[in-house]
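S.,

Sequence below, as promised.
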Amino acid sequence: MSWEMPDAWDLPRARYSGWACVWCGASLAQGATPAGRATSERGEYYAVDVFECLPGVGCMAPSKPAPST
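The prediction came back faster than expected:
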């Protein structure tokens, strides 16, 4: 995934706690893969490991191919 990691202080609780995908917010109850580390330097340095949907699921699912004409 080539998206920019969000600021750690801006993450909702479910996302920084690892309960939801850092990119789309979907529940990770069925599994997850590490997405990296969200950091922030507002005042004190803060970092948290965040997770994303498994490949092929949620925001990591392949998009449908365009219909052929």
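The chain is about 5% helix and 20% strand.

Coffee later?
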